[in-house]
Amino acid sequence: MQWLKLEVDRLRDKGLYRRLRVFRTGQVPHAIVDGKEVLLLSSNNYLGLSEHPLVKKGAVGAVEAYGTGSGGSRLTTGTSELYASLEDALADFKRTERSLVFSTGYMANLACLTSLVGQGDVIFSDELNHASIVDGCKLSRAETRVYRHRDTEHLRDLLRNLRGNGRRLIVTDGVFSMDGDLAPLPEIVELGEEFDARVMVDDAHATGIFGERRSGTPEHFGVHDKIDVHVGTLSKAIGSIGGYVAGSSLLIEYLVNTARSFIFTTALPPPAIGAALAAISVIRVEDPAVKLWKNVGDYTALLKEGGLDVSSESQIIPIMIGGTDNTCLFSDRLFEQGVYASAIRPPSVPANMGRIRTALMATHTSEDVHTAAGVILEVAGERGLL
Fold first, then answer.
1. CA 140, CA 111: separation in Å to the nearest integer?
2. Cα diameter, the chain
3. Running along the chain, 386 residues long, what does each successive block of 10 average in pLDDT?
4. Sign of CA pseudo-dihedral 247, 262, 179, 117
5. What distances in angstroms separate CA 208 from CA 20, 134, 217, 347, one per listed residue?
6. What is the CA radius of gyration of the chain?
7. CB 250 within 8 Å of CB 20
8. 119/140 Cα distance (integer angstroms)
9. Which helix (H) or strand (E) is 187 found in, with range?
10. 60, 94, 114, 225: least buried by Cβ within 10 Å?
11. Dihedral over Cα of 78, 131, 26, 23: its sign
């Protein structure tokens, strides 16, 4: 297996080597990482719900009532009554007829893309869509046409020049996970209607955060009823694990019977379902996104006032660096100064587009926000980025 060592060495040489950092705490603002207390600025626990007392209570209650494991796939022994409650809650939250929960958001995307289209069909995919969408497109056996990021004129050209009678599916992230920008859903919906294409939105980073009811970017843009397939995750703002698809009853019925990533995997354990169910209730009652948006506004203002060029439409605020070596050095220096924010390098982002992906949480205090911005500005000054 000498080739494995050569490949690992090659990753090191290119600055693409990764290692796992060990947390001795949960996803809290002040975390213990590799034995060091740091201000956590890279978590997808956007609303802080993984540590919310009611969400923890929901998980513990599910363990006490149903045990720790599901016992099998959803279609054999794994669909407890908790699933029915969660799927009803998600359908109501997303204002769709039904929803279907998967073991991960990755599996939810694979399910839709490999079941709804196939050979002879065409997928139109934003070039910066999540890896699970990219992989789903490859596995679908449909032709995939990639349009430039958020470029609806390019998408229009691709749709206009299409020949054949196969199905057409436009798929996009709602919030793009590495840039923090939003998909232009109103324009995408219009193109779908004009060219008879269905629209699928992965709202993993928007669920619980965007829209009046916090149901996501389709609600935020006022096009909720015009999205054919709503996909999301329970592992980010919801604070648990799993994914979901929401839409018509017919869509869900079809996926139950055809989606391999649903049929051939073990169901989620009861505590994950109990936690997600409780988190949805907390979002509706307490609306922690209000505090999150306050933190986002304060943080971006501080960075801009300090001379750092940042741009984002969401709780994800990237600090653009460029090359992989400089990106890693910036992240390491932040860690030394007590702030943990991950270095994002290829293949997660294009070459020479490395960045520090910072993400705010509702549980960050005002002092945390000011501290984080101050440290980032200090390191940016050292690196000549101001």
1. 9
2. 59
3. 89 86 95 96 97 98 97 94 97 98 97 97 97 97 97 97 92 97 98 97 98 97 98 98 98 98 97 98 98 98 95 95 93 97 90 94 98 97 91
4. negative
5. 28, 24, 10, 28
6. 21
7. no
8. 8
9. helix 185-194
10. 225
11. positive
Q: How many CA atoms lie within 13 A of 330 on its CB side?
A: 30
- The structural domains of the chain, ordered by start, are 16-48+288-382 (3.90.1150.10), 53-286 (3.40.640.10)
Q: Which of 171, 163, 117 is nearest to 142 (CA)?
A: 117
Decide if 78 contacts 72 (C-beta within 8 A).
Answer: yes
Instruction: Quote the Cα angle for 77-81-83, to 5°.
Output: 85
Residue 372's closest CA among 343, 339, 336, 324? Answer: 339
The closest alpha carbon to 299, from 384, 158, 180, 148, belongs to 180
Q: How far from 276 is each of 58, 80, 99, 144, CA to CA, in Å?
A: 8, 14, 14, 33
Can you tell me the distance from the alpha carbon of 189 to that of 186, in angstroms, rounded to the nearest whole number? Answer: 5
* CA distance linking residue 241 with residue 44, whole number of Å: 12
The contacts of residue 221 (CB under 8 Å, 6+ apart) are 185, 186
CB neighbours of 159 closer than 8 A, spacing ≥ 6? Answer: 124, 168, 191, 194, 195, 197
Q: How many residues does the chain have?
A: 386
Count of CB atoms situated within 10 Å of the CB of 1: 5
